[in-house]
UniProtKB/TrEMBL annotation:
Domain of life of the source: Eukaryota
UniProt-recorded name of the protein: Acyl-CoA oxidase, partial
Keyword Nucleotide-binding listed: no
Gene Ontology CC annotation, any one: peroxisome
Keyword terms: Oxidoreductase
Organism the protein comes from: Ectocarpus siliculosus
Record domain Acyl-coenzyme A oxidase N-terminal: where: 24-136
Record's keyword annotation contains NADP: no
One Pfam entry name: Acyl-CoA_ox_N
GO terms for biological process, alphabetical: fatty acid beta-oxidation using acyl-CoA oxidase; lipid homeostasis
Signal peptide start and end residues: none
Listed GO MF terms: acyl-CoA oxidase activity; FAD binding; fatty acid binding
EC id: 1.3.3.6
Length: 171
């Protein structure tokens, strides 16, 4: 037996008899009516972008999905910039709307927060604008040889350039 659809008479009856008011609950979860409306506005604008359509996703092979996610990544970050999204919460709402794993996920989920919360004010001033504007990209480096992502096969060289006081990493 399959689950009842949202318009099934039993579902309608249960919802009608419930003391839970979904809209009021949504306002509470999202921090008020204004925040909820802003979230819906952001998501509607993102979902209107043709590149974020997911209808053909089940039919794409690995290479096609990778290329599509790179295309979506570029459009996602450009769209956030066009919309003036700088608040991490608003960017998170936009990200939920596209429903895709992006090549910049580690950068946004790990590197930017590390720069935001684990650096000195001077370091934040120097590095955070570069990271949030994608002028620099950070990555998570896996060094455990027993990990399932074939880390053993990676060959990496890091070279420190004193003239620019930075390292260059080649994979």
């Amino acid at each position: 037996m399959s689950a009842p659809t949202p318009d099934h008479p039993l579902m309608v009856k249960e919802r009608t008899g419930s003391s839970v008011r979904p809209l009021q609950l949504a306002y509470m979860i999202y921090g008020g009516r204004e925040a909820f409306e802003r979230m819906k506005e952001i998501q509607a604008e993102m979902e209107a972008e043709p590149v974020f359509d997911r209808d053909d996703r089940p039919f794409l092979d690995h290479t096609q999905r990778y290329l599509r996610s790179a295309e979506k990544m570029a459009r996602f970050h450009n769209k956030c910039r066009e919309m003036g999204l700088t608040d991490p919460q608003e960017i998170a709402w936009a990200y939920v709307a596209i429903d895709e794993v992006l090549p910049t996920d580690v950068h946004m989920a790990m590197v930017v927060p590390a720069l935001r919360y684990q650096t000195s004010p001077e370091q934040r001033e120097a590095w955070l604008p570069l990271a949030t504007s994608f002028r620099i990209l950070g990555a998570y480096v896996q060094t455990e040889l027993g990990h399932g992502s074939n880390v053993r096969a990676l060959e990496t060289t890091a070279t420190f350039d004193r003239s620019i006081d930075r390292a260059t990493v080649l994979l």
